[in-house]
Amino acid sequence: xxxxxxxxxxxxxxxxxxxxxxxxxxxxxxxxxxxxxxxxxxxxxxxxxxxxxxxxxxxxxxxxxxxxxxxxxxxxxxxxxxxxxxxxxxxxxxxxxxxxxxxxxxxxxxxxxxxxxxxxxxxxxxxxxxxxxxxxxxxxxxxxxxxxxxxxxxxxxxxxxxxxxxxxxxxxxxxxxxxxxxxxxxxxxxxxxxxxxxxxxxxxxxxxxxxxxxxxxxxxxxxxxxxxxxxxxxxxxxxxxxxxxxxxxxxxxxxxxxxxxxxxxxxxxxxxxxxxxxxxxxxxxxxxxxxxxxxxxxxxxxxxxxxxxxxxxxxxxxxxxxxxxxxxxxxxxxxxxxxxxxxxxxxxxxxxxxxxxxxxxxxxxxxxxxxxxxxxxxxxxxxxxxxxxxxxxxxxxxxxxxxxxxxxxxxxxxxxxxxxxxxxxxxxxxxxxxxxxxxxxxxxxxxxxxxxxxxxxxxxxxxxxxxxxxxxxxxxxxxxxxxxxxxxxxxxxxxxx
Length: 497
Known about the structure:
Layout: H1 2-23, E1 26-27, H2 35-45, H3 56-70, H4 74-91, E2 93-97, H5 98-109, E3 113-114, H6 128-132, H7 136-154, H8 156-159, E4 163-170, H9 173-181, E5 189-193, E6 203-209, H10 225-232, H11 239-242, E7 250-257, E8 261-264, E9 271-274, E10 282-288, H12 300-320, E11 325-329, H13 340-358, E12 364-368, H14 373-389, H15 395-408, H16 411-416, H17 418-429, H18 433-496
Parallel strand pairs: 5-12, 6-10, 6-11, 11-12
Antiparallel strand pairs: 1-3, 2-4, 4-7, 7-10, 8-9
Helix pairs in contact: 12-13, 13-15, 15-18
């Protein structure tokens, strides 16, 4: 038995190892003897590079820069790739100079990377699709990449040695459960705006990520929030080379990014144009929400999953970038079907727990509603009520508000009776600690009473069934005795004769 288990475990390890090896990228054509010549020819033959500079002199100087400064040592290219994977596997962290990230992006742009891993449109490491497609969205995506290439090249002397950091946080489920169960009057600062996540300077921008980080940024048809984040902060695209699919306990932070493009629109209406300001730096925090197409998002299990995911991200951001506000919004509320009120409260509660653990009080969490007037109204009303009460949003209030939604509410109720439910949420969120604790006890008592009624009903049913069984037993016993008496009487008469 032990041998069988060991064999299965070994096979699982081997399978995982194969997956990890398949995910790793290699230099395409690296076995060639004159590999640098191969790269330089690829640069010369790439027609899209000519679109980056209008004049022939600029094109020539840029290509020479690529050959002499970026791709001048083929052996070092392979060594650098291997070092990146080693760092990530051993430390869950990779630190790169901005010029090193540029080199990785150019490898992707020129189609010089390959790997034996396929995930549909996810984790594409070759930009050939958007370079060769003639559709409008591909053209806009390519413009973002070319804005980045040109801007980096023109500003290389000032920014080339600046450091970018890619890091992962993994949270233990049991340890987080203990943190969640602790009661505390930890308060948080928050703000609701009608802006977008990336509109705030000196902030950590939340990427409403897919578990496959980077999403479908390099395909030709998709351009939702994550894809846009990757396009306006294109250095983040390099993470697709070495960061595999996130687990439900993990979050990814990319620090010190520059915004190379601005944009309007969304999905098929996305339109990009160059950013003229490289002074500001941003961080991108990738946390993936769970999709709720038909599953109930108000269950304890599903709420816990989302709390854990947000906490993993917020803790990482507060530890690594303590002076940056967290700029988030309608996380998981688009095609994933998340409820805007539940998801907002989940983010607030996770942030409060993270603030308590990290002991960082100075920053705030920003909920960017963009065009969602309903959510913006909720936020501004909540802010106003708290100011009237002279109190702040705190951890206990948030726990009780989520407990209220978890035990009393479902999606249909929120649609049909949203005003009443929101007012009840306001009542919970603006009470002082003593009132909230009393309300908590009432909610728990109602749950206990509900369970007691169900138990009483079960007991009554059991008693009724037991009584019916006893009556049936009496009938059977009586019938058996009567039958036995008849047999005895018949036998007596027979033998008497």
